[in-house]
Amino acid sequence: MNEEKLITLKPMFNLKKFFLAWGFANFMIWIPIILILGFMAIVDPSIRVSLPLMLPYILIIAIIFAIINLTIAFINEKFNYKFTEYIVYSDRIEFQEGFINTKFTTLSIKNIKEFHLEKTFLQRMFDLGTIRFITAANVASSSQAGIIFRDINNVNQIYNLIKNLLEKKEI
Question: How far apart are CA 100 and CA 97, in angstroms?
Answer without folding.
Answer: 9
